[in-house]
Amino acid sequence: LTEAQVNPKAYPLADATLTKTILDLVQQASNYKQLRKGANEATKTLNRGIAEFIVMAADAEPLEIILHLPLLCEDKNVPYVFVRSKQALGRACGVSRPVIATSVTIKEGSQLKPQIQSVQMAIERLLV
Known about the structure:
Structural class: alpha+beta
Strand content: 5-15%
Helix content: 40-55%
Shape: globular
């Protein structure tokens, strides 16, 4: 996808470096069972207050199928970010299908906490 093809509603959009960091963390979260895949599951984690942050795919078609998530995130004060590719997001989630939204979830005493906090801060910097 070129810059021009990304839907402007997919905001904030992670750059290549941040995308790699996010997808690596999503993959680790999947191994640690701290990941929910899919827009419906992500919505549930937000409603239950167990989401650390939400990652969405900017090439979801139509994008409107996930655009309720940023609103809910803002409501619940949960960081959210878009990456360019649902295919890459799916791979990071450890599935062979595209994934358009995923939620990294809160876990007591999680070993991923430092990485999670660092990604949350990076996402929040995108929003200023």
